[in-house]
Amino acid sequence: MQETAISVADEAVGGAMPQTDGQRWLVLNPTSGSADHTDHVRSLAEERDYHVEETQGEGHATDLATIAADEGVNLLAVAGGDGTLHEVVAGLAAADALDRTTVAVVPVGTENIFATNIGIRDAEHAFDVVETGARRRVDVGMADGEPFVMSSIAGLVADASVSTSSELKERFGSLAFLANGVQEAASFDGLHIDLTAISNGEEVTWSGDALCALVGNSRRFVEEGGQADLEDGLLEVVVIEHMPAGSIVAEAFIQRVLGRTTDNVFHTQAAQLEISSTDGDPIGFSLDGESRYHDRLAIHTEPLALRVCVGPEYTVSPPP
Ligand SMILES: Nc1ncnc2c1ncn2[C@@H]1O[C@H](COP(=O)(O)OP(=O)(O)OP(=O)(O)O)[C@@H](O)[C@H]1O
Whose CA is nearest to atom 30 of ligand 1? Predict the structure, then answer.
């Protein structure tokens, strides 16, 4: 594999951008989160002269983002959760409009992980940040041509992430979904995979039976988890080896994962990688929470490809 080069022009300007807007649109998913935000968010937007479009169902946010791009909209707000944001970024990428559109994330979903990562607290804050906050260019992950902003994860956690209990969330914080996966590992056959990544110009590989393979753009999975550097052109790559585990073993294991990497955990940072199935079964991936199946998945970063409005607490490179 050839390493993807980070454009010097992007590096030179850093992530910061001037604030000049023409048309403003809001793509609003009325069903995200507790689904009681529509009137409030619509009025926040209309007070500020946004044109508002509501989504009707799956994939509609992608179509609306493409239409907005074709209309020349250069400030596109997205009210929803991470799934709606994922769809909007896909629509902008399809219209080849990532470079001329700034995205404002209005968090009204269940988890809102990406909004938290870029320092956006709530809907009102999101609209304020458009007026007064900074704008940055951040990296986008690409999985066989499909953009993702948070993560592409395979294995037990892909399904388990939805049902993570609040007790686990309290105990393990942002890695609760991982703990959940490990707890269910006893009945899981494992992912039979080969992974090849380019890390610091060197090819590194992992082969075997994995509990999960985690690729984060805005997400980190080892130590305390949390936000990864969104402007370094790199993905966080973690593979946890599959092992039969009852809940007590699993808990001890997770405690170790939270603290430091172990022999059972492969961790690297890469601009480019490939994950392929070695047993002929397609691998189930969760791309920002959307379910996809691939026999082989090539993933890379598009450095600084997405323009976003960030809150004052956004830190480019948060300490682990
Ligand atoms: N009008 C609609 N009716 C039903 N579903 C819709 C509608 N509009 C969009 N959707 C669906 O909503 C999903 C996205 O939900 P979203 O991720 O924004 O909310 P969430 O799941 O509550 O939040 P999070 O992903 O942050 O946990 C998409 O998969 C899309 O299919």
Answer: 58
